[in-house]
Amino acid sequence: MKVTFEKYNPLWKEQFNSIKKELEKSIGFLHPGIEHIGSTSVEGLSAKPVIDIMIGVNDDDELDKIPPLLQGQDFVYYEKYNEDMPYRRFFIKLIDRPHNLGFPEIIRLNDKIPEGIHDHKLRIAHIHVIPVSSEHWLRHMAFRDYLRTHPEVKDEYQRLKELLSQKEWHDGNDYNEGKDPFIKREEKKAVQWYLEHQKK
Question: pTM for this one?
Fold first, then answer.
């Protein structure tokens, strides 16, 4: 498979704001942080047109409060990932209600994932729920803000993505491994910069 990207689209920011308002109606009373992350959050960076959203909850105990609150809406909860990533709850937001597309609202650990659900054309967003005290929250926020404020790093990332998009990949995970050395290197710099920047 080849990974295809779209040039940066200002509509992505509008889509995030719309989904954020929708989420606030369902989970706002928990006072979560709701942040736009990933390549669609960085102006000028090409990306797959799926919005990455990170919901920051106060602690681990709040992780499992989110799935029931989003049930019945345009979200599919991947409960099957909880075992490998117990610090995170993961959802995708679909273009239509899950049952209208023939998908379950909850995908449990041993469920066979419906084939069509892998089609990114049916997805609007990926939603990651993580405690704000987690190192994963820190690194996502740091890397996003680092790319936004360091154009030379953003341009290097853009060139890498363009290069990788020309290659054939077994699947999305295989492609992500191609980006991994760059991301790990720059994330370390980003976290250090972010923590120093916060102190000022």
Answer: 0.90
